[in-house]
Design brief:
CATH architecture: 2-Layer Sandwich
Helix content: 25-40%
Largest sheet: 8 strands, antiparallel
Distance between the termini: 39 Å
CATH superfamily: START domain
CATH topology: Alpha-D-Glucose-1,6-Bisphosphate, Chain A, domain 4
Shape: globular
CATH class: Alpha Beta
Low-confidence stretches: 133-143
Structural class: alpha+beta
Radius of gyration: 21 Å
Number of domains: 1
Strand content: 35-45%
Mean pLDDT: 83
Length: 196
């Protein structure tokens, strides 16, 4: 099994904006491989909104990176995936779990994404504000208004497990490399929807 964790990505939008767009992110120009997206279940449980979606993709773009002689992987035409998300309004986090639900005898890919507001920026700006006030207090007694731009942090990890005999590790490495490339398109697609 191979684990890959991406570097954090920061969206210049509030968590609430990201969550609203997340549930309505398809279609977008970077996700033309999505054939359908269907909500299977959505329920409110206290402060949490739990959603299960079936997302059907055309083939699996990351599987196309596998060598052609691995016809069991490269011949996949449709890839259904299950996406489970939990938006916790109390902790202000959106956590998603996505996994393939077909071809599991050949491979398993499990992705976890955690979206949460960027807190450290507020603390740094408050400290900076105090320092500036001390310096400028003698020069300028008027009130200063500061606006703190909300931001959302995305942390992503994927686990890949391949059942293909002796070359499992090699195929896992190829799939992770290909997945890393697709993550860039995913972020661009979500940003595109946020900008609408």
């Amino acid at each position: 099994m191979r684990l890959w964790e991406s570097a954090s990505h920061i969206f210049p939008y509030s968590l609430e904006q990201v969550v609203a767009v997340f549930w309505d992110r398809y279609p977008n120009s970077k996700a033309q491989h999505i054939l359908s997206e269907d909500v299977i279940e959505r329920k409110i449980d206290g402060n949490q909104i739990r959603t299960k979606k079936l997302i059907v993709k055309k083939g699996a773009t990351f599987l196309k990176a596998a060598p052609r002689w691995m016809t069991r992987l490269t011949s996949i035409q449709v890839m259904p995936t299950l996406e489970e998300s939990v938006y916790d309004r109390a902790t202000r986090t959106l956590t998603t779990y996505t996994r393939n639900i077909s071809c599991t005898s050949l491979f398993n890919m499990h992705e976890r994404c955690v979206y949460k507001p960027v807190i450290f920026e507020v603390i740094l700006r408050q400290r900076l504000f105090v320092c500036i006030l001390k310096v400028s207090k003698a020069e300028n007694q008027r009130d200063q208004q500061w606006t703190i731009q909300p931001r959302t942090n995305l942390e992503r990890a994927v686990w890949v497990n391949v059942n293909y005999g002796r070359i499992d590790a090699l195929i896992e490495r190829v799939l992770v490399i290909s997945f890393r490339k697709s993550v860039k398109r995913t972020v661009i697609g979500l940003t595109e929807k946020l900008e609408e």
